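Go through this chain.

——
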Amino acid sequence: MPNRLDDMLNFNTQALRIREQRQQVLASNIANADTPNYKARDLDFRAALQDALQAAPAPGGAALAATSPRHLAGSPQATQPGLLYRTPAQGSVDGNTVNMDAERAAFADNAIHYEFDLTRITQQIKTMLAAIQG
């Protein structure tokens, strides 16, 4: 039963995780808008989501080696796949490629998609609870 529930929620949870990673990358771009030679980055959402969905988890999940009894159990997370440098629309004297208007627009767009994915997961859980409770 848990496997079927995991499969049902997998797409939306992966999308939500990747949206969160993209939000961090965009926030980093905005924070470094005045840093000389900073190269703006962005996450290719489609490629990252395809990679995440194709990577089938091992049965029981992968375990990390714990060398101390105080270590927390966990599973390894993939590094940010699909992380690319953004092509600058206009060059700058200091070598910085951050375009604040484009970054703010991408940040707002990603935030809206994040909220939508969160709402979809919430709706799925409510639907499952309604089915269970009758």
Q: What stands out?
A: The two ends are 18 Å apart (CA to CA). Residues 2-50+81-133 form one domain. The mean pLDDT is 85. The chain has three helices and two strands.
